[in-house]
Amino acid sequence: MKKKTLTNILTRILVILLIILVSAIAFLGIQKKELNNWKNILPDYTLSKELSNIRTFVFSVDTSTEEVEDENAENSTNATTENQTEGEKTETPKKQVPVNDPSVLNVDNYKKSKEVISERLKKFGITDYSVTVNEENGEISVDVPYKSITDYTVSLGINKGTFLLIDTDTKENLISQDLIKSVTVNYKQSSATQSTQSKYASYDIGLVVKFKKDGLSKLNEISKKYIETMNENGEATQKTVTVQIDGEDRYTTYFSPEGNYTELFIPISQNVSTENMDTFNDKYNEAAVIASELNTESMPIKYSLTKGTFIESYTGENFLKCAAIALAVVVAILSIILIAKYKTIGILATIIEIGFIAIHSLLIRAAVVSLTLSGLAAILTVTIMNYILISMLINKEKVIEQLEACKKFIINIIPFIITIIVFAFSRNVHLQSVGMVAIWGIITFIYTVLVAMLLLRKNKKNGVE
C-alpha cells in the first residue's frame, strides 16, 4: 500500500512539473541561437487586420511598353553596302510593344490575377488579407495587416513570377516553370567566410528548387552537357546555363558531370554578412517572395503599383496587453474560487487550468489561427468552459465517475461543437477565427480530462488518493 501511495505521489509530482514546464514554454518561449542572435523559435500569434495597423495597396494594369526585336521588319542589311565595311554587323531593328498584349486584358484574367495574388500572400505567410478586383479595368486592391513583412506585398503583386533555365550562349529554353515541383528558401555558408578572418559569417541566401519527375530527368541530362572542359591548350572552359526569373538573369552556373542532382540551389543574394541582421532578414524575405511566386501560377497580366496607404488600427497599440490582463484577471478569479472551495485540491485544479491556457495558446499559434476580436472572446469562452469541466470532474471518487461527468459535459455542449465547426469553415474571417479557436479549445479539453484523472480524484476516507 505504501509503495502504491508513493508511486501515486511521484506520478502527481511529475505531471505537475510537466504542466509547469509547458506553461513556461508557452508564456516565456524557447530561445535558440540563430546566427549571431537569440530568437524565440515558437511561432507568434497571427493577428487579424482589426488587431493591427493596415497597409493598403492598389495595383493597376501596366500600360507601359517595352523594346523588343522586330522580327517582321524588312532587313536589307544581310549584305554589306557601300557605306559598310565587310566585317561590320547591322543592328537588329527594334520596336515598342505593350507589356500587356491587349488580348490578355479580359475579365477572366483579371479574376485569375486576383486569385494568384491571394495564393501568393498565403504562401508568403500573410493569412489575414482581403483582395478585391475591379472587373471593368482590372484594378486590384489588397489590404494586409501592417507587419515588417507586409511591404513585400508590392513584389507579390507586380512580379509575374516566371522561371526559365536557359543555355547562356544560345538562349535555348532548357527547363521551364511547369517542370518545377516546389521552391523553398535556404541559406548556406559562402566561400567568403572561409577566406576571411571576420567573426561574422557570410551566407548565400537563395532558392532550393525541386523538380517533377520529368524536370529531374531533364536536369540530370543537361548536367552532363553543361560542364567544365579543357581545350587543346589546356585551358578550362565552361558551358553554362542561366537562371532567368521574371525575364532577368539571376544566376549562371555549370555542373559537375559526376553529380546526381535531386534539386538546384539558386543564390539570390550572395556573401550576406550576419553582422547586420536586418539586412540578412531583408535578403531572406526577398528570396521568400520569389519562392512564393514560383510556387503559384504566373500572373497572366503585368501590374504596377499605383497607390499605397497606411491605416492605423482603431483598437490601439495596447489592446492585446489589455486583453491578456483581462484573461489573467478572469483566471485569477476562477483560481480563488477553486482554492477557497476545495483547498489543496483547488490548487491542483488551478494548475490544470493554467496548463490548459498554455497548451491552447501553443496550439492556436502552431495552427496559424488568425485572431480577431471575436477570436479573443472565444479564448475567454473556452477558458471558462474548461473551468466548468474541472468543476464537474473534481472530487469524483472513481475514474468511471469522471468519465460519466465528462460524457455529460460533452452532451451539454454538442450544439456549441456543431456551431464552431460550421464557423471554422466559414469564409468570414471573424466566424472562422471563433471556430478555429474554439475547436482547438475542445481538443485541449482532452488534456484536462486526462490530467484530472490523475490529480483530482478524492477518496472519502483519505482525501486525495
Task: Describe the model.
The protein has 465 residues and is an alpha+beta fold. Helix content is 44%, strand content 23%. It has twelve helices and 21 strands. A hairpin with a 5-residue loop joins strand 13 (228-230) and strand 14. The longest helix has 27 residues, at 2-28. It starts with a helix and ends with a strand. 27% of the residues are buried.
What's a quick, concise take on this entry?
The chain has 12 helices and 21 strands.
The helix-and-strand class reads: alpha+beta
How far is it from the N-terminal to the C-terminal residue, by CA?
Answer: 11 Å
For the largest sheet, list the strands in their spatial order.
7-8-4-18
* Principal-axes shape call: elongated
Number of DSSP helices?
12
- Mean pLDDT across every amino acid position: 84
Number of strands: 21
The proportion of residues in beta strands is 15-25%
Largest sheet: 4 strands, antiparallel
Throw out a few tags for this protein.
alpha+beta; 44% helix; disordered C terminus; elongated; four-stranded antiparallel beta sheet; 23% strand
Q: Layout of SSEs?
A:
Blueprint: H1 2-28, E1 31-34, E2 37-40, E3 46-47, E4 54-61, E5 65-69, E6 94-98, H2 107-124, E7 130-133, E8 140-145, H3 153-158, E9 163-167, E10 173-176, E11 180-189, H4 191-195, E12 202-211, H5 213-222, E13 228-230, E14 236-238, E15 241-245, E16 248-253, E17 264-273, H6 277-294, E18 303-311, H7 319-342, H8 344-366, E19 370-371, H9 373-393, H10 399-412, H11 414-424, H12 429-455, E20 458-459, E21 463-464
Helix pairs in contact: 1-8, 2-6, 7-8, 7-9, 8-9, 8-12, 9-12, 11-12
